[in-house]
Design brief:
The chain is of the alpha+beta class. It contains five helices and seven strands. The protein binds coenzyme A.
Length: 163
């Protein structure tokens, strides 16, 4: 069973382990140390207070397998962008797809968002499938949206769902 709960600072070690995977080639978040991850998690309380980000840990049969979060648009607080990652050992089991369904309920019912976006590098077919399977609509390409691991700015697909 896939469940979400708010992230805890004590998740740092597990997130560090999951994120330090050379096969995360299309993902631009990689903490250098566990202390960096702790510092990042410690800021979650302020992010929620400011309503800028809501970050959740993904549990699969009660084990920590990844994370999903929504970043609220600074100018338009009814728009959010979702991001997620899953431990490679658990890929292709439908976990990210289910996690998006769960965060979508929070976005709609608690955060009162009316538009949710998901952006992924053009090559990130697995992430694209997650958006597609959740009935997000491909709206186009956002040019030079994300800095790739090679330092170059990369284009992304923009998927979105509106309520
Ligand atoms: C993207 C990611 C979160 C998907 O997580 P997941 O739990 O494996 O996703 P799901 O199992 O729900 O769905 C994955 C789908 O992609 C498909 N897929 C996987 N790799 C693929 C590939 N190389 N090409 C095409 N489809 C692929 C799977 O077959 C599955 O689709 P299906 O159910 O139709 O068979 C995971 O691969 C990941 O953490 N990647 C690294 C971080 C990242 O890129 N995050 C997203 C940033 S936008």
């Amino acid at each position: 069973m896939v469940e979400l709960r708010l992230q805890k600072v004590s998740d740092a070690e597990r997130f560090f382990e999951i994120l330090n995977n050379p096969n995360f080639i299309y993902f631009d978040v990689q903490p250098a140390t566990i202390e960096d991850e702790v510092a990042w998690l410690e800021q979650n309380a302020q992010r929620m207070k400011d309503n800028t980000q809501w970050n959740y840990t993904i549990l699969y049969d009660e084990a920590i397998v990844g994370a999903i979060g929504v970043q609220i648009n600074y100018h338009r607080n009814y728009i959010g962008e979702i991001g997620y990652f899953i431990d490679e050992k658990y890929w292709n089991l439908g976990i990210a797809t289910q996690a998006v369904k769960l965060i979508e309920e929070i976005c709609r019912n608690e955060l009162k968002l009316t538009r949710i976006e998901i952006a992924m590098l053009l090559e990130n077919s697995a992430s694209e499938r997650v958006a597609f399977k959740n009935n997000y609509l491909k709206e186009g390409i956002q040019r030079k949206l994300i800095k790739g691991k090679d330092g170059q700015m990369k284009d992304c697909y923009l998927y979105a769902k509106v309520f």
